[in-house]
């Protein structure tokens, strides 16, 4: 494996059947080969990141998505291209995320991305004292109002991209629990959100991180590289390392994630975005609290 990697074959190449070398290594029980691929992936992504550092992100990654209609239909929310924005098979995972970020009575919680409101429904059942929801899509915002979310106890809706609403989000804080799950954004956006939540920075206004309680908990939908286990494992390492640089510990709990997925699940959806058996549910806390 080392030889193949050193020869320059990309760690993330797919064969004609859509399998990675990691799939073969894992199915054959070759743990060392699988680990070598994960390490190669981490190294390659780090180099890529350094090369791309200068590129600016003036345009929203999901500008097209935000300017086109979305449709709620039964167990799913789809965009204009029939991508699954949110699907009900994720409900058990959202329940767990809600319990993680809202474990104390009278919590103050922040959720980025309403979608089908699955996590927000689970959070409401846990009766947070304050429940801030940030949503950028006009159709989703309209749906939230139609469903009376603006009148639910403790709920404050912030309409707009989280990137443009940080002052408002900050003014409504601080928070005991934060969850992040947007659509059509890149890893860079998630990383930027982490900088906003956890970094103390030089600017006087930004010295208090959003998750300012010492026992605060943050979590995010961990769909990173969710169509191939090798890609997912590489990204789990990368996000954990990036959060650690901000003083945050990440623990992944493995949860079975394919129980509610069957042949019908992806029917009519352009691209299945989750193909893995186990979901790595992240619990992120300030490092000094948990070490
Ligand atoms: C995957 S869904 C969230 C699903 C939600 N966790 C649930 O339980 O139903 C993603 C949501 O994030 C919204 N969104 C996308 N980009 C955003 C941004 N930059 N700021 C705020 N919301 C955004 C989308 O419109 C969509 O409603």
Automatic annotation (TrEMBL):
Domain of life of the source: Eukaryota
Molecular function via GO: protein-arginine N-methyltransferase activity
GO CC, alphabetical: cytoplasm; nucleus
UniProt KW Nucleus keyword: yes
UniProt keywords, alphabetically: Cytoplasm, Methyltransferase, Nucleus, S-adenosyl-L-methionine, Transferase
InterPro entries, per database record: Arginine_N-MeTrfase_2, RMT2/GAMT_Mtase, RMT2_dom, SAM-dependent_MTases_sf
Domain RMT2, chain residue ranges per copy: 56-291
Gene3D superfamilies (alphabetical): Vaccinia Virus protein VP39 (3.40.50.150)
Localisation per UniProt entry: Cytoplasm; Nucleus
Biological process per Gene Ontology, one example term: methylation
PANTHER family: GUANIDINOACETATE N-METHYLTRANSFERASE (PTHR32379)
Name under which the protein is recorded: Protein arginine N-methyltransferase 2
Organism: Coemansia guatemalensis
